[in-house]
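Hey all, quick one. A colleague (J.T.) asked me to put the S-adenosyl-L-homocysteine job into the tracker so the inputs and the structure tokens live in one place instead of scattered across chat threads. No bug as far as I know, just bookkeeping. Sequence used:
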Amino acid sequence: MNKKLYIETYGCQMNVSDTEVIFAILAREGYTRTEEMEQADVILINTCSVRDNAEQRIWGRLEQFGALRKKNEGLVVGIVGCMAERLKDSLLESRKVDLVAGPDTYRSLPAMLRDIRPGAPQIDVRLSRDETYEDITPVRIDRNGVSAFISIMRGCNNVCSYCVVPYTRGAERSRNAHTIVREACDVFHKGYKEVTLLGQNVDSYFWKGPEGDVNFAGLLAMVAEISPELRVRYSTSHPKDISDEVIAVMAAHENICRHIHLPVQSGSDAMLEKMRRRYDRAWYLDRVAKIREAMPDCSITTDIIAGFCGETLQDHQDTLDIMRKVGYDYAFMFQYSERPGTLAARHYPDDIPPAEKTRRLNEIIALQNTLSLESNRRDIGKEWKVLVEGDSRRDPGQLCGRASNNKMCVFDKPKQGAALRPGDYVRVRVLSCTSATLICELI
Ligand code: SAH
Ligand code: SF4
Ligand code: F3S
């Protein structure tokens, strides 16, 4: 059998990592990957439910796949991931899909695909307490061959009141540390130079091994010690859990990148309480101070939600204020979107009018643009190591790559000597910047 499989991926990095697991599972069954959906025998959409607009995009895509299905009767269209988990059977009722598989059921995809018949779609949305896909070697879908995602845990045990993830991904479980280290070694030997360890709350990683327990700090050290040539990143830290031990392990290893994604969500204690984040402003600012004390060159990025239930103008000002105090290098910023079934949806009215949410979000975005530019300006004149990722998108005469602090650097290709390749480390000096990019020269 040679069936062609096309997968589209939405949502977070964990979904990208899951798509790589799905390719691996189906490759064993003889499926080959295609990037042309018109040529596919099976189309899967790996979906996200975190905000309503994420789901609306997927419905739009399903309409488009519907047109292909009309032309090609044998075509199978499946929906997998968080939206499959959230909407379950109701997706089948839409008659737009032949298969619905939740995030913990990818091992049964081959059997489900085999059993699909006209009028007999397949669904499996059971969540698991222990599935981590730890024995599966993902088929990498990145293009640069430099940077790989490694999933270290699944699910989430926090119940942030706005968030659907615990319902779509189930309970938290940590993957066997040895299989993580083996996977990192394996990608390094294949030529990758950077791994990103992924989890919804990496600080609560905890694996009970036969030779002793491994926490996140221990795991980070194990991966960092594979080779000084292998860069290590991770995402996401939870401000309530990021420990001094993790900060110390980072500071002690030059190859653990100087970047922490530390989602604040809001700068108001009242909102943080209602969001059930289980830290307050003072605690958050103390963590930031601790990070800066140990690693003055560490960048800090964040996620912010504008217009959560009952957010007053003062709460909103508190968010702008904490942004200024921390001086974030970058932020992902969203309007609050009520998700059915969450604590917030059940207990608090979604009472900030949409236009006001947008206005607050725009203020947050405008401030972050200024902060990002200021942060980049502070880097002018600095010299540092960059991992080459490939040609710059704008100018084929230039290369791009990231500094340890995750900032994107562009620089002219060398005029003489050997050409640089993705995966090479180079030293650059920062000459100037925009709010998104540092313009550098090779040194
Ligand atoms: N586990 C991570 C984030 C997971 S979701 C953490 O705890 O930080 C990624 C981001 O989406 C969140 O940080 C939050 O800012 C945003 N988000 C989650 N639910 C949302 C909602 N209902 N409306 C708007 N943004 C939301
Ligand atoms: Fe959602 Fe909170 Fe878990 Fe992050 S930590 S995934 S925001 S419930
Ligand atoms: Fe979205 Fe699921 Fe990730 S809801 S953000 S794809 S865990």
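Adding what we noticed when we looked at it: The mean pLDDT is 96. The longest strand covers residues 383-391.
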